[in-house]
Amino acid sequence: MTEFAQLLVQGIAWGSVYALIALGYTMVYGVLRLINFAHGDVYMVGAFIAFYVVNYAHVGLFAALVISMIACAALGVIIERGAYRPLRNHPRLAALITAIGVSLFLENGGQLLFGAEPQPFPRDLLTGPVATGLGAASAAIERTTHVIINQEQILIILASLAMMAGLQIFVRRTKVGKAIRAVALDRHTASLMGINTDTIISLTFVIGSALAAAAGVLVSLEVGQIDPIMGLMPGLKAFVAAVLGGIGNIPGAMIGGVIMGIAEFLVVGYISSSYRDAIAFAILIAILLIKPTGITGKGAVEKV
What we know:
By secondary structure, the chain is an all-alpha fold. It has a domain at 19-226. 75% of the residues lie in helices and 1% in strands. It has helices spanning 2-32, 39-56, 61-84, 92-114, 128-145, 151-173, 175-185, 187-192, 197-223, 232-245, 250-270, 278-290, and strands at 119-120, 225-226. A two-stranded antiparallel ribbon has the order 1-2. The longest helix has 31 residues, at 2-32. The radius of gyration is 19 Å and the shape is globular. The N and C termini lie far apart (53 Å). The mean pLDDT is 90.
């Protein structure tokens, strides 16, 4: 039972990361019907930005996280305006191929700029009262349950929950959030109602890219190293999580991410670590065969 609880904790921590990345996929798909395959590489860029500002600007974790999120939000706007907006009225296949091209550009550009070798990410950024509180919580969990959970995992779970809850409140309770939902429902009708759809679409890239950057920083803190292709598998798994939950549905992306993380670690613990990555694609095939719209998705008639 303790082993199961240990795997469950690890799965929830990683699932929270997948959920943060999946939110970017699902928001962009919701407003553009586009799979932004470059999204996982934005996660990588966020980790490297935090790495450099920590090592050369000597800032703390919170400042590095904020700087990374702002920089990647700007990168998201650049990608949307430079790569996707010119193709908005073209066939979807053109935008899809472009998304793959942007992904390859970021990966190879990252290797050119940062080098192909993994870099050690500083793991001593948690200091002060927050670190003390997380450490105390970690020790209390270990004493009462005999489950080992470190302060980085607690930080990942709490920070992810806070950001996901904040996004849900923003989308459901604010005027801008209502505009996002209107554009997702019908972009052309929303524009006729006076909503600036270009601004809303750019905003979804801003939010999604910022969340991906946050995920990159949090994972780097836990793993302790970064490299230019670190976003490849998490990006693919987060895409599967978005499809699993019902792509275009924000709560679905959260649920799908957590399920993906738990399934991954249960496979590692009870079958073999060799199948850690394969489980994502097995889940994708299963969901496409059984319920293509995902757990929370609903079938819709598409006009052609």
